[in-house]
Amino acid sequence: MALPAAVSNTGGSDMHRRKPGLLAWLILLPLVAWLLLFVVAPTIMLIVVSFAERDALGRIVYEFNLQNYARAFDWVWLKVMLLSIWYALLTTILCMALGYPVAYFIGRAPERWRTTLLLLVMVPFWTSFLIRTYAWITILSNDGLLNALLVGSGILTEPLALLYTPFAIVLGLVYNFLPFMILPIYTSVEKLDNALIEAAYDLGAGPVRAFSQVIIPLTRPGIAAGAMLVFIPSIAMFAITTLMGGGSNPTIGEVIFKQFTSGRNQPFGAALGTILLVIFLLALWLTNRQREERN
Amino acid sequence: MKTKTTQTILSAAAAAALVFTATAHAVEKLNIYCWSEYIPQDVIDDFAKETGIKVSVENYASNEEMLAKLGAGGGSFDIIQPSEYVVEALVNEKLLRPLDKKAIPNLKNIDSKFLNMSFDPGNKYSVPFMAGTVGIVVNTDLVKEDIKSFSDVFKPANKGKIVALDDAREIISWALLSKGIPVNDVSDKNLEKAKGVLSDWIPLIKVYDSDSPKTALLNGDVAIGVVWGGEGAILLNENKKFRWVIPAEGTHLFIDSLAIPKTAKNFANAEKFMNYILQPEVSKKISEAFPYLNPNMEAVKLLTEEQRNNSASFPTAKEISKMETFKDIGERGSVIEEIVTSLKVE
């Protein structure tokens, strides 16, 4: 996934912009080709298909109509969409609450430790997320490790139903996306000027005030970038939600996946996907506008 | 899901590797698109070793998924594994290639009960792979009531204890059967009745899984499952606490076949593969890994007494007489999908 604009945009003054030369374009060519092939072309295909129909076998029939969109705004699908946004929001908030202290700690740690600590954050990524998700299934299932521990030690008498619940879905999402929150916040914390924090204390601010009025605003770009990086993929994620949610609390990602597969209705899936895309763009636009206003 | 997703990743890697090897010299190839948990890997490996054909496999978890991909022109598959009603649809749409029976002499091993069926008279386009039923598995440690039917499964007392196949056509058929309606009578009126039944049933289901519904049962996350016969048979072998029940209302008898899409490039290799797995010894291996109702009577003879007596693999003739096969229902399929999805969400 391409990083949203918010990540790279900490300074970004428009004054020094120059027209790139031929060489610059040549260097950029692979990236441009990549974007055209794998971002622009699929998006156009998605939008075109979302206005098409399908036949009994699920083949796309290119006849313009709006019925997919009319259907997409049915309460059933809106509910799925809202539920997914809710899960994603919860995931983002939890990632922030868990990730900020970690990022802060790493960013303020002695320099020689930072690389090691960052590495520790990324180590789980060396394993496929599917394998890590299956590990959670082993841990959370009724006869799983966690329940065996809780029941075996006498803390509980009955195993807790953890797997295939909304709890498991959010846990899976938080676990998988936490590093996406930690890393951008870390980059902001690392750049934090100690003098400003000291100045806050010198001017009589307590720790709470220094944190909320100096540290937080200074690391806001990192928080915003992390929030986008967690929120957007959480909405559309379907593998984790299917595996850990059991399919009984379907998210929008799962519903779209099903339309493309067992539902035999790609145009409708494409319409839902396009709506999701518009929501993402709106979210990005809102964060960008907020940032510009502050600047 | 596990197998499917990892297989997809693996086959993507394999495809990438192919790009490099294919340029070197032309290799004989075979692209299989089949159900997950249905053709054992060692059978595929043995075939590849014996014939020198390079085999790649992709999996799907439902007929509809396969149709969607086939219809979208995605992938170029030489062999697919549709169920009876999908063979019918594909024959009607002229999407299958007629088989060269001379290349498949082992077809003689198939029990005539499974040949010349209404979905493909004369087996012009398809060769039976496995048959089977959908039935109920009960963990008798956790469920003490005597469960005999779909209506016994879907009772409020069993809320949060049920795993069901993630297959809208199957789920609708259980509701239809509970109302005494034949599974292929999917008129609006009947679907309305089924919807009424399912609005009570669906909130009781905890997990939907078509790939490996046995997992949730084995882990103790659920106590009752409505699952494929082969999955049930594995559970019966695994632990005596599991009991297999053919629903009193009747159930679906599926017949999964092998067929060649019209667009297949390596159709001769596909026929070779069909003939290969119709050998009794090979078919027996498949039965051992995935114990479904094997239509290959020569292979069944090679099975042990115990394997033949597994009630989830081999229903009795009397039980079979109460089962129905699915017929193609065309666009009604997506109506059904919508009913089930919307009920899941509510």
Secondary structure topology:
The complex is a heterodimer of chains A (295) and B (346).
Chain A: H1 5-8, H2 22-50, E1 53-54, E2 60-61, H3 67-72, H4 75-108, H5 111-122, H6 129-140, H7 145-152, H8 166-191, H9 194-202, H10 207-218, H11 220-236, H12 239-245, H13 252-260, H14 266-294
Antiparallel strand pairs in A: 1-2
Helix pairs in contact in A: 2-14, 4-8, 4-11, 6-12, 8-11, 8-12, 9-10, 11-14, 13-14
Chain B: H1 2-24, E1 29-35, H2 41-51, E2 54-60, H3 63-71, E3 79-80, H4 84-92, E4 126-139, H5 150-153, E5 162-164, H6 168-178, H7 188-201, E6 205-208, H8 214-218, E7 224-228, H9 229-238, E8 242-245, E9 253-259, H10 267-277, H11 280-289, H12 297-302, H13 305-308, H14 317-321, H15 332-345
Parallel strand pairs in B: 1-2, 1-3, 5-6, 5-7
Antiparallel strand pairs in B: 4-7, 4-8, 4-9
Helix pairs in contact in B: 6-7, 6-15, 7-15
Instruction: Name the assembly state.
Output: heterodimer
pLDDT below 50 for ≥5 consecutive residues: which ranges of chain B? 18-24
Distance between the termini of chain A: 27 Å
* Termini Cα gap of chain B: 24 Å
What is the string of helix and strand elements of chain B? HEHEHEHEHEHHEHEHEEHHHHHH
Q: Indicate how many domains the architecture of chain B comprises.
A: 2
For the residues shown, what is the average pLDDT of chain B? Answer: 90
State the major sheet of chain A.
Answer: 2 strands, antiparallel
In helices, the fraction of residues of chain A equals: over 70%
- How big a fraction of the residues of chain A is strand? under 5%
